[in-house]
Amino acid sequence: MDKKTHWENIYQSKTLQEVSWYQPTPTTSLDFLKQYRMPLEAKIIDVGGGDSLLVDHLLDLGYTDVTILDISASSLERAKKRLGERAQLVKWIIADASDFQPTEQYDFWHDRAAFHFLTQEDEINHYIDSVRKGLAKQGILVLGTFSEQGPTTCSGIEIKQYSQESMIDLLKRYFEKIKCVTVNHETPFHTVQNFVFCLFRKLAS
User: How many domains does the chain have?
Assistant: First the structure.
């Protein structure tokens, strides 16, 4: 089964509250956004956002230029249905994060738990190159992945774990680390997943 079919099946067979990544309030992501005081007109993209609730919070806060990208069309349709008329305020992109080609430059690139599904070196390198091209000058990257104390698989797929050090080392050529934190995420099934979140700023070219 290819990746897209796998994720379409998941979103067509499980509700939002039945997936491990369900998070009513994405506290860590919102804290990074607030700490960096991103203006309301900032261009924001959530890669792998699916039907997560970050977009709801961004709209509630007054952000006016929000893009959600996911490999699953079903996940985006669910998010649109939930948002109702507010879905028209959002740009929706169906694409695989491993080969996404940004056509805009964003001020804030957010990725919670999409990057760790990229396990091949060429996929990882392409993603980093896409972020480099897709981030505006001094743009901010927030990357959240399973830590070395976290799970080794998710939804039946192997993932790549990261430490703060390995993530910083991977990105240091193009991005300056501002802050890293480790976070425990409690799933709807009352299991705990350990994440590492890092906030980076794009270096001047």
Answer: 1
* Domain that residue 157 falls in: 3-202
| Token pair belonging to 123 | 């996929």
Residue with tokens 């698989």, as numbered in its chain: 153
Q: What percent of the chain has pLDDT above 90?
A: 92
Residue 43: C-alpha distances to residues 102, 110, 125, 129, 149 (Å): 13, 11, 23, 19, 33
Q: Nearest CA to 21 among 149, 113, 116?
A: 113
HEC readout, 81-98: HHHHHHHHHEEEEECCCC
Q: State how far the alpha carbon of 124 is from the alpha carbons of 44, 67, 129, 150, in Å.
A: 21, 21, 9, 19
* Residue 52 contacts residue 112 (beta carbons within 8 Å): yes
Q: pLDDT digits over 164-188, tens only?
A: 999 999 999 999 999 999 999 999 9
Please give the radius of gyration of the chain, using alpha carbons only, rounded to the nearest integer: 16
Burial (CB count <10 Å: 0-12, 13-18, 19+), residue 173: exposed
Backbone angles phi, psi at 5, to 5 degrees: -60, -40
pLDDT in tens, 57-79: 999 999 999 999 999 999 999 99
Cα 169 from Cα 141, distance rounded (Å): 15
For residue 106, what is the domain's CATH number? 3.40.50.150
No. of helices (H) and no. of strands (E), the chain = 6, 9
